[in-house]
Design goal:
The protein is mostly helical. The chain has two domains: 287 residues, no CATH class; 121 residues, no CATH class. The protein has 19 helices and no strands. α2 packs antiparallel against α10 and α4 runs antiparallel to α17. The longest helix is centred in the middle third of the chain and has 37 residues. It starts with 29 loop residues before the first helix and ends in a 14-residue tail after the last helix. The N terminus and C terminus are likely disordered.
């Protein structure tokens, strides 16, 4: 479609002077580049040192460096995803404060990066393992195998490529949707490769829960923003607040403060939510390559270990009672794994799970502490704990479970003890992800004003006219065009240009470079 120029005038005939666009075309300051790479190098050294300390604490001696090279590549890809995630979503937080001149562009992105960093550090990790639980259980249990690494590399590289593509072409896309789509794709492919129905490779109940949240979030945001805008128009009746800004003039101080506060909140929430996705995948990588250090939470205090043994005995009693009258011969793990994969209770589900729960309790009781479990069996113990936890999770949601409220409470307590032992995130992982996400946020603004600024943060807010015009100008003013006010205005410009003998529709008289 041909671009039109606009020579729109006010009542007195003088052209409207558009607001000054923030200067986002400046190059990087050399000192900024030095600081950026300095922080990046310091972060990588911190990661390497933390892994060395954790592995050394287990007393394990390295016989080959191949796993550590593989670990390095995997960590770089995982942290690269978080870095791309950072600059992919920069415009979400800083568009309003930059284009309303509430904050200078450089300061705004550094402010956003700081609170992305803090959001990651203060996150709980619940989202991390919620995302991981979408992966096929057999691949999680064998994450150190070639198939496990292929799974992690496939989903991360696919997500990175899509994020870079949508960022470059200015397409509004969610990193969360991208990663979850990659995980579901891995699950479906894994099921097909194993000769099963593709739908059996994904925990669709968990995927549905996450899908509802992703689907409803934009709708909730739209409705809430619309209601807040209407309320504000009823309460604050100053027309200047709803008009385009004039030149470099910032909004009133109280609105400026609210815009900065919302920018801060969006940045912190983005870090605390999106940062956790990378954490969960990094933990899978660590468990697969260095299970002696990261398969179990060796920092778990002895008081929680004692609580684990207590809840284990209670859960074993409940499950054994449900499986009374049935016995198993041999290894109980295949039957439990089949239940977790297919979500169908069979005659061997309860007795197999009862044996597995007893085995896990015996292993912990034998060594007295997770920190004392030998390195050669720690991977198997972790797999047993994870498999038991997932089986109990599905069992409590199964409509055929025949469990009363008290029994569900006992199993919930036991599952919590299992998760404390297997679902943990070391502090250095949080720091590494926080640095990657924060640095990514700080450099993403160099592109967002051309491509993403016109697409993101278009929800109504305190200065809707300002953002609407500014976000449109972010792309069109770059080519010395302004958004036409009406078809009649555009036709008038065409007639004037033809009258002047010009073949190409160019810049209106009222435009400024």
């Amino acid at each position: 479609m041909t671009d039109f120029a606009l020579n729109r005038t006010m009542g007195d005939g003088s052209p409207i002077q558009p607001a000054s666009r923030p200067n986002l075309d400046k190059g990087f300051n050399p000192l900024t580049i030095i600081i950026f790479f300095g922080i990046l190098a310091a972060g990588l050294l911190f990661v390497a040192y933390s892994i060395y300390v954790d592995v050394n604490a287990t007393g394990t001696k390295a016989t080959t460096y191949l796993p550590y090279l593989l670990l390095l590549v995997a960590l770089l890809i995982a942290l690269g995803f978080e870095f791309v995630n950072g600059f992919h979503d920069t415009a979400n937080a800083v568009a309003t404060v930059i284009y309303t001149h509430s904050l200078p562009a450089e300061f705004a992105v550094m402010w956003s990066g700081l609170f992305n960093f803090l959001g990651v550090l203060l996150s709980s990790g619940a989202v991390a393992f919620g995302i991981v639980s979408l992966l096929p259980v057999e691949l999680i249990l064998q994450v150190g195998s070639s198939a496990g690494f292929a799974m992690v590399f496939a989903l991360l590289i696919a997500a990175i490529i899509w994020n870079l593509g949508t960022w470059y072409f200015g397409l509004p896309a969610s990193s969360s949707h991208t990663l979850i789509g990659s995980i579901i794709g891995v699950g479906v492919a894994n099921a097909l490769l194993r000769g099963r129905d593709g739908t059996s490779g994904v925990d669709w109940s968990k995927a549905t829960e996450i899908g509802y949240a992703l689907l409803l979030s934009p709708l909730v945001g739209f409705v809430c923003a619309a209601i807040l805008l209407l309320l504000l128009k009823m309460i604050v009746r100053n027309p200047a607040l709803y008009a385009a800004p004039e030149g470099n003039k910032p909004p009133p101080l109280w609105i400026r403060g609210i815009l900065i506060l919302t920018c801060t909140g969006v940045s912190f929430a983005h870090g605390s939510n999106d940062g956790q996705k990378g954490m969960g995948l990094i933990m899978l990588i660590l468990i697969g390559t260095v299970p002696t250090a990261y398969a179990l939470n060796r920092a778990l205090p002895e008081s929680q270990v004692a609580q684990f043994q207590k809840t284990s005995a209670a859960a074993s009693t409940v499950i054994a009672a449900k499986g009374a009258g049935h016995g198993i011969i041999g290894d109980p793990r295949p039957a439990v794994t089949q239940y977790v994969s297919h979500h169908r209770i069979s005659e061997g589900t309860y007795p197999s799970l009862a044996v597995l729960v007893k085995d896990v309790g015996d292993q912990v009781q034998k060594y007295g502490s997770l920190n004392k479990i030998p390195s050669e069996v720690v991977g198997n113990t972790r797999n047993d704990m994870y498999l038991t936890s997932e089986a109990i999770r599905f069992l409590m949601k199964d409509k055929e479970n025949d469990l009363n409220k008290e029994e569900i409470g006992i199993l919930n307590a036991y599952k919590g003890s299992l998760d404390n032992a297997t679902k943990f995130i070391p502090t250095w992982v949080k720091v590494a992800v926080a640095i990657a996400l924060g640095l990514g946020t700080m450099i993403g603004w160099t592109h967002c004003h051309h491509r993403r600024g016109k697409d993101r943060q278009v929800a109504p807010h305190l200065r809707p006219g300002c953002l609407r015009r500014a976000s449109r100008r972010s792309h069109y003013r770059r080519r010395r065009h302004v958004w036409p006010a009406s078809l009649d205005d555009a036709r008038a410009v065409i007639r004037r240009r033809r009258r002047d003998g010009r073949q190409r529709i160019g810049t209106a008289v009222g435009d400024h470079p």
